[in-house]
Structures are given as C-alpha cells and as structure tokens.
Design a protein that fits this description.
With 322 residues, the protein is an alpha/beta fold. 26% of the residues lie in helices and 25% in strands. The strands form 3 sheets. It has a 7-stranded mixed β-sheet, sandwiched between helices. Strands 10, 11, 12, 13, 14 and 15 form a 6-stranded antiparallel β-sheet that branches. A two-stranded parallel sheet has the order 6-9. Strand 14 and strand 15 form a beta hairpin. 41% of the residues are buried.
Length: 322
C-alpha cells in the first residue's frame, strides 16, 4: 500500500522504518520540529533524518491542518495514513483524506491511558500490564475503533525503561500487522468502550514530587516510573532537593511519621510512608541511591549520616539542622 506517515521521535521513526521494511511505499512524511522538553531530548531518533536518508518528501509542522499539508497528502495519493507519536490533534479534513482512513499507534491499552506519558502513568498507578494499541483515528483523541492490541505484564522488578523497551519493540510489528488486516478488507474493528476511557496530560516537574503521605507502594511506583533517563522523582531534605534514583519496599512494617528516616538497611535508608504510618502496618520505602542538584550520586546511607531526619515534599528551612 501507499502510506503517508505522521511520526515524531523514536516511536515515530521505528514505526515508519517498519512500514518501509514491510514493502509499503511511503510518498510523504510529516513530523514535528525538534523540541526542548526533557522527553523530546531523551527519545529523539529523528524522523526528519530518516526522511532525508530515504529521499522521502517531508513536511515539518507543530500542527498539521494548513492547506499545504492537506494538498500534499492528497497529492501523495496514499491508500492510508499511519500516525505514531504525533503530538497535536489531527482534524477530520486531514485524517480522512486517504480512502482507507488513518491508523494511529499508541503505547497504551486503550481506552485507558489516552493522551501523554501513558507508560509512566500506568506504572505509577500500579497497572498489572501495559501495551500498544493500533486503532483507526476519529474525531476524538485516541478514541477510534481498535484494530489490534498487544500487552506485556508489569512486575515489581520493572522500571519505566523496561516497559519502554518492550512496548517500543511492539510499534513496528503491530503497525505492519494492522496494515495487513486493513489491506485484506477487514473493517469490523472493535469500538472502544468509552466508559473505561481515561485521558492523561503531559508530565512536568510537579508530577515527580514525592509526597510521603502517599501509600509506600505509590512512592515506590513513582520512583521506578521516573528512573534515568526520565526526570527523577524527588523530595527535600531541608532546602536541598534530592532525586531518588532507586528504591524498594521493605518486607516488614515501618511505623512512625511520614517522611521520617528511620533506620539503615545495607547501603540504603528506610523512610516511613503513608498517611497512616503511625499505625505501623505499612512497609517502609527503602531508598537505595540519590542524586543531588550538583550532579553527585550517592548511596543513601552515605548521604544521610544519621537517622531521625525528615524528608518533605517541599523545602523547609527548619529541617536544615543536622
């Protein structure tokens, strides 16, 4: 088939590469300009460079609803469009140009986790599995009929990087397989159950702040959802910001005040967590390694010379006493 491709960053590039390797013709690529956000810098395998390497015409746009884009799509005479990690809304007058419509590929098990950073949010929310959905685009964001869906289980040993690697590997194959289904004449795709739908916004620095009144497992999930190269989960020791690079949960209950550094364990320190930590029924959060604003990385036991200090969500001058 002839396929117009909309794509951005690593997800977009891997998807378009798979479409080309499967023997489809790509007469036009549309991508975003390079961005300055942390996420765009982390996974920026360039779609524009792919287009240049393959001598494919490319348009670079923040939004793709102008007449030049519509005319270029129409002139490409494509059978279908494929969209992967396109960051802005596509209007019907764009996605409906090809006769077979537009296939979007999203790294979530839709209808849940439409929108942005689905893997981070899913891990934070302790989902048992994550995955990738190939669906037909309609007027609502990530809401069209599902062509194919594939999943992978989440274990306590997984970080967001593990989930990224496993789901990224699905993007190319699920796109190619979905195109094969569409080319075969299949149109009886499953509508999404909108009662199960959820939409998530982009993550920012605020979303990475540790609140020690959260249940300990929520803190653990936040830390592993924001491991390097993502912006890390953080809290404060007095006025000094601490990025938590690795953490786990204790097997035993740790009682006390949320945020209190209670005891050393190996190279880490155990912190009481949960609004009900005083009841002594929650596990503690074992912080293994931290990073400071000056870039130094330390085992937690080396950074905290004594027990009894408090970690907080916001800087506190009173906690500077050592």
């Amino acid at each position: 088939m002839r396929v117009v491709a909309f794509g951005y960053m690593t997800w977009g590039r891997r998807t378009i590469e798979a479409v080309l390797e499967a023997g489809h013709e790509v007469p036009l690529i549309v991508t975003h300009p390079d961005g300055d956000s942390a996420y765009e810098k982390i996974f920026n395998e360039s779609v524009a460079e792919l287009a240049a390497d393959r001598a494919i015409p490319v348009l670079v746009r923040n939004r793709a609803h102008d007449e030049e884009v519509r005319s270029a799509i129409a002139a490409a005479e494509a059978d279908i469009m494929v969209v992967s990690n396109w960051r802005t809304w596509l209007p019907p007058e764009v996605y409906s140009i090809p006769p077979l419509g537009t296939l979007n590929v999203h790294d979530a098990l839709l209808p849940a986790y439409a929108g942005f950073a689905p893997l981070n949010w899913a891990l934070i929310n302790d989902e048992p599995e994550v995955g990738v959905t190939a669906h037909m685009m309609d007027a609502d964001f990530d809401a069209g009929d599902i062509v194919l869906q594939r999943s992978t289980p989440v274990t306590d040993d997984d970080t967001v990087v593990d989930l990224f690697d496993r789901t990224l590997a699905m993007f190319g194959p699920i796109t190619v397989d979905a195109l094969d289904l569409i080319a075969s004449g299949r149109r009886d795709f499953a509508p999404q159950d909108r009662r199960a739908a959820s939409y998530f916004h982009r993550r920012s620095d605020e979303e990475n702040r540790i609140d020690w009144t959260w249940p300990p497992r929520d803190v653990f999930n936040l830390v592993r959802a924001q491991v390097d190269p993502y912006p890390n989960a953080y809290c404060y020791r007095g006025t000094e910001r601490i990025r938590v690079l690795a953490a786990s949960l204790t097997d035993d209950a740790i009682g006390g005040t949320p945020g209190r550094i209670v005891i050393r364990r190996g190279t880490g320190v155990v912190v009481a967590a949960g609004a009900d930590a005083r009841r002594g029924r929650n596990p503690g959060v074992l912080i293994h390694r931290v990073r400071l604003d000056d870039g130094r990385e330390l085992d937690a036991v080396d950074y905290f010379p004594r027990m009894g200090e408090y970690l907080t969500a916001h800087p506190r001058e009173a906690d500077q006493a050592r």
